[in-house]
Amino acid sequence: MKEIYYLNKETLPTICVPHDCVIKDIQMKDQTLTFIFEDNISSHDSIRAIRPNAKSLIIRYHLTEENGFSVYEWKKTGRFSRKDGCYRRLGNSRLFAYAGHLEYLYHNVGYCSIIIKLFADSGVILDAYVDRLEYEWIE
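Now predict its structure.
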């Protein structure tokens, strides 16, 4: 089943969050960034409530421009620092290296924009210019 959400309309949609679900593959083709999630995705509480029979999920983000996203990773400022640090911008190609051990935490939407908080070994933020996104539920 496919659900399409438009971020270029007057009213922004409410989009479900696949919280704590692992992204097993990340692809980029024709200005579309695709997240393919783990199998047995409905074992997570965030999915069980809305799609109890879902086996997997594919999210496609249609970017408004080529390379219309930025990737940031949390870096500590000191060796023994626990709290101090900052987000540093990475090359966009580094996003694909996280596939298989990247968790989706939450997202914030705005007009033609989505900010996605992810987690690997540290915090990762994806900031993208998106006019629509598509959820494809595999059942």
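The mean pLDDT is 92.
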